[in-house]
Amino acid sequence: MPVRLKAVIFDLDGVVTDTAHLHFLAWRQVAGEIDIEIDEQINEQLKGISRMDSLERILRSGGVAERFSQQEKDQLADRKNQLYVESLKQLHPGSILPGIAALLAELRKSGILVGLASVSLNAPRILDALELTEQFDFCADASKIQRSKPDPEIFLVACAGLGVTPEECIGIEDAQAGIEAINASGMLSVGIGSTLSGADLLLASTSELSLPLLLSTRQNNE
């Protein structure tokens, strides 16, 4: 007996809106203050992982990971977050990525639950700026988990919050760590971006997303 699709769980950065460049600008400023240069190649490695994991990768890239105490690392992470939060003021409903608003409306009309699985502690603030808070039935963020992606914990927390099983869900991600987390959780995975691998459905852009496409992907994978 086929399992009905009951929920779609979205990543935030790169799926609902694109704040990746804002993260990069904040990290680049913080890195520059400790004489580390980072580029877009390093930035790609930071997608989908937590703030502290991102900082550790930046410090390792500069060969200075052992130079900083945990307190100093916390201060650097806080500094980055302050810069990033300030940059969020420029977000507005027009910052929603193509196809997402229409898909959220389709899901709502069809009675399919909508969840968020974002490692960003600023997720509620971002949804509010995009005027999307009411479109999400449950939001799992970094405050609710112990382990970051690619561990599946955040997607499992989102399922529990929505009252559904992973088998009843589809997850949408733009980062390789996120795809691995979705797959490990037992959901079907949709990847946004041509460089990803391992997704049940891979799309070049969010503009290709639609409810009929998600339903057909689910049917083809049963």
Intertermini distance: 9 Å
The strand count comes to 6
Q: Which range best describes the helical content: under 10%, 10-25%, 25-40%, 40-55%, 55-70% or over 70%?
A: 40-55%
Oligomer: single chain
C-alpha geometry = globular
Quickly count the helices.
Answer: 9
Largest sheet: 6 strands, parallel
What portion of residues belong to β-strands? Answer: 5-15%
- Nearest-integer average pLDDT: 92
Low-confidence parts, pLDDT < 50 over ≥5 residues?
none
Family: Belongs to the HAD-like hydrolase superfamily. CbbY/CbbZ/Gph/YieH family.
Protein name: Beta-phosphoglucomutase
Catalytic activity: beta-D-glucose 1-phosphate = beta-D-glucose 6-phosphate
Enzyme class: isomerase
Commentary on this structure:
The chain is of the alpha/beta class and 222 residues long. Helices cover 45% and strands 11% of the residues. The protein is built from nine helices and six strands. The chain has helices at residues 20-33, 40-46, 51-61, 70-87, 100-110, 123-130, 153-162, 176-185, 211-220; strands spanning 7-10, 113-117, 138-140, 169-173, 188-192, 201-203. Strands 3-2-1-4-5-6 form a six-stranded parallel beta sheet, with helices on both faces. β4, α8 (176-185) and β5 (188-192) form a beta-alpha-beta unit. α1 (20-33) crosses α4 and α3 (51-61) packs across α4. The chain is globular and about 55 Å long. The termini are close together.
